Amino acid sequence: MATILYGCFGKDKEWTLDRAIPRIETPVSQIACIGTTWVNGYHWQTTLYDKQGRMLETFVFGYSSYKTLNHYDGAKNTLTIHYNCSDSEPSGEMNVDTIRRTFDRAGKMVADKQTFTHFYTRSRQKTTGTVWRSFAYTTLGDTIITRQAYSNPKLDQYVKTQQTNIDWWEHDRSGRVERHYRLHVMGNAPSDTMDYYSQRFMYDSLGRRSLAWFDFMYLGQFYIPAGPDTVRYFYDKHNRLIREVRQYTIDRRNKVEIDMTKLDSFGRQSITDSKRRFFEGDSTYHRPNNEKTDIVEYRYEQFDSDKHIPLRVSQDLGY
Hints:
- By secondary structure, the protein is mainly β.
- It has helices at 2-6, 156-161, 265-280, 305-308, and strands at residues 33-39, 42-49, 55-60, 65-73, 76-85, 94-103, 109-121, 124-137, 143-150, 164-171, 177-185, 193-203, 209-218, 230-235, 241-248, 255-256, 292-302.
- Strand 12 and strand 13 form a beta hairpin.
- The longest helix has 16 residues, at 265-280.
- It is globular.
- It starts with a helix and ends in an 11-residue tail after the last helix.
- Mean pLDDT is 87; it is low at 1-13 and 155-162.
């Protein structure tokens, strides 16, 4: 990792892809296709695919920038590395999450190990924690995280207060995901509820995902939606995803708001302000409410090392 980082620290700050994030690492011979993602007309992401259509690397551009790198052993995704450079931290610093997966003889993932590391410079780093997770499956293939263990002593208090962490994927008889249920409560519900939602999925006659929607969404103390209320998917003649229509609303029918009765006056006022911004917007800071539609387009072309290396870093910051 240190070797990778050494070559990535340039002199100029890139607000769209931080200089700490490694550029293309995958051997050119493994890359078959390059895809770009455009949100409302702005180039937001670049993804590299192999011949099987699997994601090798993806770069997300913005004031906060990201990269994900995948390694495969046959059909199994054994290693994923997430690079994260936040706009709240100095350029050149980043968080790196490394996930190593273990599979059983049938090819099902039974456990993973996630290590969190913060890089201050190319010569100074700090491991901030490690998490081991194990998984269980039902006869239909539904996936449940059954246990989490933390190695960092500084997280002991977190472990003691954590009450619930459920991540459950339900499948139909064809193996397609029908529902994703998530409940994550760190300590005192409802104020410490991190995630709480139920998302469902529908497929067309060809088995392609056509619609996703939330039938339940808890907004939490900061009134942050779990995602678009609905997502509609569109494909080209090669069955490649080419467009998503993501509809966000302030409709209350699928949204649950936080109970403020047990909070002090400061907490209630803070949540009231977040609620107003979500449902009404904020004219002072020119922030609209949550009522919007995002059009996401996916474009593909055959990978050409002469054309696509070095990586084109998007300068679009309109999102």
